[in-house]
Description:
Layout: E1 2-5, H1 22-34, E2 39-42, E3 51-60, H2 67-77, E4 82-86, E5 102-110, E6 124-125, H3 132-139, E7 144-147, E8 162-173, E9 176-183, H4 190-202, H5 209-217, E10 232-238
Parallel strand pairs: 3-10, 5-6
Antiparallel strand pairs: 1-3, 1-4, 2-3, 5-9, 5-10, 7-8, 8-9
Amino acid sequence: LTLAYDGTAYRGWQVQSGAPTIQGLLTDLARRLFGADARLTGASRTDAGVHALRQTASLTAAIGLPLSAIRAALNDRLPADIRVLEAEEAQPGFNARRAALGKRYAYLIDDGPVANPLLRHHAWHVKWRLDVGAMRQALGVCLGIHDFSAFCAAPGRGQPAVCTVRALHVLRRRERVAVLVSADRYLHHMARNLVGSAVAVGRGARDPAWLGTVLASRDRRLAGPTAPAHGLTLVRVLYPR
Length: 241
């Protein structure tokens, strides 16, 4: 399944006891429609408040329906903030998370003097006019293969810290700034911590060279703040062609 969702009302992707999550809602619905053995695995465990344009999930169930009917059945019963964009048959044993080669995220910042109310759930409003050139220069050091421990939240520190960042872009259009990042994998809060550090540079609180020092330190205490979750969107999950 290829999914789009507004994560505002949810505690993230992954099932949590007593909390609304994307995976939990979809799994419950799939089991009602397709049987109690239905299983759902997402490619990315997006955090609470994070959105998705094209999240991928593998649904395993015994379903005797056309793909278009599966999509329609799910969308007819899903809330308006979650949609199944596509349903495709996968090879047996396909796992959306393990098969992924990488993911692309976009982080949206509103740096206008007054926060745009239509973006309040989808962009981080900052009080400073950001220097996108300085942000690009700072983030450039993160391209390639690095230990990103300095940008990893405490819950993820038991995992391998080396990631490959394939692309990093900072774009401006009027009072909107987008930070785009593509990597083979991400540490816990890594994308949001990179953005928080880049904003510290963009508002002039830090020199662009500072971010390279932080990266080399592998010390989370030296990096900038974690950017709010609601500005982050999963753009695409990458698979072998």
